[in-house]
Amino acid sequence: MDYKKLAQEIIADVGGAANVDILSHCMTRLRFNLKDALKADKKALEELDGVMGVVYAGGQYMVILGENLLPVYDAIVHGFDIKTGGAIAENLDGDLKQKEPLTWKNALNKTIGFISSSVTPMIPGLIAGGMLKVALLLVVTFISADYANSPSYQLLSAIADAPFYFMPIFVAYGAATKLGGTQIYAMAAAAALLHGNFTALVTAAKPISLFGLPVNLLSYGTTLLPALLIAIVAYYAEKLLNKIIPNIFKAVFVGMGTIFIAGSLGFLILGPLGNYVGRGIAALFMWLDGTVGALAVGLLAAALPWMVMAGMHTAITPFMPQLISNPGYDSMLRPAFLMHNMAEGGAVLGVTARTKDKIKRSEYLSIAIGCIVAGVTEPAIYGVNLKYKKPMYAVMAGGFAGGLVASFLGVRAYVMGYSNILSLPIFKETAWAAAISILVSIIVAAIVAFVLGIDSKDLEKATEPVKVQVADDAIVAVADGQLLALEDVADEVFSSKMMGDGVAITPESDFIVAPANGRLTTVFPTGHAFGLVRPDGVEILVHIGINTVELQGQGFDVLAKQGDLVRAGQPIVKVDRDTLMQKGYDLTTMIVVTDSKDKQISLKHEGTVKSGTVL
Fold first, then answer.
1. Can you tell me the mean pLDDT for 305-316?
2. 3-state SS class at 311
3. Which of 25, 26, 313, 340 is the catalytic position?
């Protein structure tokens, strides 16, 4: 595959390098924070050879590349001037805003988002180090036990251990990048915790102080939270110093003051606090493992497919090295991740057995093998299991069953690694138990997927544009349903007609169609709204549901893009009404004439209509 060409095509389809505010990545996805998300062409991205899917969530365009991720990411970084931080451009509707006031309601989401963004840059390094550890373990176990005493082994072990031991520095970099601070200040302050002077004092185990205050003699290698706290303090210290120090002295005193404040507080308060909280989290996992262990691992494995889709799984991965450092093994997180991946592959095998299409069967079999052997799950999630919906229940069942067995048999991961069958050596003496648990996950998921089958209704394709021609000055119903006067809508913005006059409809069909002939001037990537201008200049807004912008695209499938010429009645958005109504959202859809160009426009506002009926 030509990674450089694919990188160029991806950047072009997200609106060009100038439209990229932040680029990061997780295990299988490029994560774009865009200055103007409306410039991205989701359909074009999905059609690129090598792109497995595109997801828009949390204000990010996530391009799923699987095993092609790192080469493409490297090609983008080396081929384009992509910024790593900065302000996020906001649109008028508010659904793409990256910065919002901290409230009790969003505190958890913002915390998870901050941790996830902070650890994302270091995840590949942790995996690389863990797999090198596995390779060295295999050499010592099966080839030569004496190799463990050789200088070569010691040097290679240092390379393998480096991503873990120096994790605070990498975490500080990610956190500073997320906050928008100067990365080197946070990294330097965090690195002080690992400096030889301090580690020598820790080894000596004699009481020490700083500014007359006692300093806790703790080891901070492989820790996460101390570095996060130091990066936060460094960010705000830098902001404060930039405000109070005259411009002529900033070059000298801002950096010095920042690392002095953050580094000193790191030794006195932040390091110990982060260490204790980290140990508390580890203790919580151990308590769960010791009390409801089997159930906890099973439930986590069952929940992971939804966490992966939301990107939330990266929020708990940093605690894997925390557990491996103390108490020395991970009996919950890695086993749950492994069982989830195996269940994804097993569910695809069940779908493969039910599929009659030989081409799809071959494709699905390849995807299943990718899950099981390589641990790449996105093609299975978005290409098969979520697509057919019912197999997602099989994934949950397989993950839960495998998690239960893994916990009962005492599966423990002792080093970092991938969640696939090739990583069985990371479980050392419990590898046999992990292998049995893997078989349980695959078999249970495959059987449940086969029994549940495929719901063909879930594969409903967008209908062809309505063939009935309507006049260019006509406005039509955007869905089957009951008409409703705009002033009766349960949203003051629309009912007060501050955006314009129009009509509402309670949709009874899944497709929301174009209200008139014209050009799409706005198509929100979240799918909850789109705008159209008729040939005579009249502008129309279609807003699907009330407060549905909160869903950030969940339940909406956008079928057209900004700039398209469309005919009245042509499907623009497909809505998963059942899911949205289960979440409690009012799906009343508004058709608002935002600019009438001084024309007198009268619309029907009562009765039952079919999609495409002239109003």
1. 64
2. coil
3. 26
- Average confidence score pLDDT of the chain: 81
Phi first, then psi, for residue 213 (nearest 5°) are: -105, 140
User: Which residue in 25, 313, 528, 543 is the catalytic one?
Assistant: 543
Q: pLDDT tens digits, residue range 155-214?
A: 998 998 888 789 889 989 988 988 888 999 999 999 999 999 999 998 898 999 999 999
Residue 77 to residue 28: CA distance in whole angstroms: 16
CA atoms within 13 A on the CB side of 284: 9
Helix axes 107-119, 225-244, angle to 10 degrees: 100
Residues 404-455 have pLDDT tens digits of 999 889 888 887 767 888 788 888 889 899 999 999 999 999 999 999 887 5
H-run or E-run covering 306: helix 293-310
CA distance 272 to 230: 11
Prediction pTM value: 0.52
The CA distance from 411 to 434, in Å, is 6
Cα distances (Å, whole numbers) of residue 299 to 178, 320, 381, 471, 490: 31, 17, 18, 56, 38
Spell out the domains of the chain, with CATH numbers in brackets.
3-100 (3.30.1360.60), 166-290 (no CATH), 292-459 (no CATH), 481-609 (2.70.70.10)
Task: Assess whether 26 carries a catalytic annotation.
Answer: yes
One-letter amino acid of 197: N
Known catalytic residue at 543: yes
State how far the alpha carbon of 386 is from the alpha carbons of 67, 313, 470, in Å.
20, 17, 37
Placement of tokens 């390094």 in the chain: 125
Q: How many H helices and E strands in the chain?
A: 22, 17
As a dihedral over the C-alpha atoms of residue 426, residue 430, residue 431, residue 432, rounded to 10 degrees, the angle is: 180
Dihedral over Cα of 438, 440, 443, 445: its sign:
negative
Residues 19/50, Cβ–Cβ less than 8 Å: no
For residues 141-148, give the mean pLDDT: 86
24 sits in the region (left: phi over 0; alpha: psi -120 to 50; else beta) called beta
